[in-house]
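call fold(seq) -> C-alpha cells
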Amino acid sequence: MRLSTKGRYAVTALIDLALHDKDGPVALTDIAQSQGISVSYLEQLFARLRKNELVEGMRGPGGGYRLAHPAENITIAQIIAAVDEQIDMTRCAGRENCQDGEKCLTHELWVDLSNQLYEFLEGINLGQIVEWPTVRKVAERQEARRPRGLNKTKTVA
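ret:
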C-alpha cells in the first residue's frame, strides 16, 4: 500500500475537523495553517470529501466545513477511499498480472495483507482517534501556536 499525501492529508484534515467540530464550521485556512497543508490542496481534497458526503460546507461569514456525520460514524478507510486512494499491496493493483502477465508467487500474500489493512482502517473511526491521548497532546500544542477562527470569513462552494 502506497498511501500518498492525498490519503494522509485527508485523514489529517478530518481529524483536525473532528477535534473542532463542536466549535462550529472550520475554515480550510485554519486547517492549512495548523497542519501545514496548502489551502489549494485542501480545497481539492474537500471537494472529494464533500462529494462522498463525509463533510458539508457552510457558506458566508463564519463558514467553513463540518463533518457530515458524527465522528464515530466515519472510518479511516472511508476517508482514504473518498479521495480515491487504494488499499492495495499488490504490484498489479489486484489484476493478477504481476509477473509477465500472470499471477506472481506472492500475489495471495499481498491480497491478504491488503484485506487486513482495509479491515484495520475500517475498524478505526475519527471519534476514537480524537480521544487518543497523543492526538490530544498534539492538538493542544497546535492550538497554542495558532489560535483558530482568525479566518472564519472564508466561504466554501
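The CA atoms of residues 86 and 93 lie 9 Å apart.
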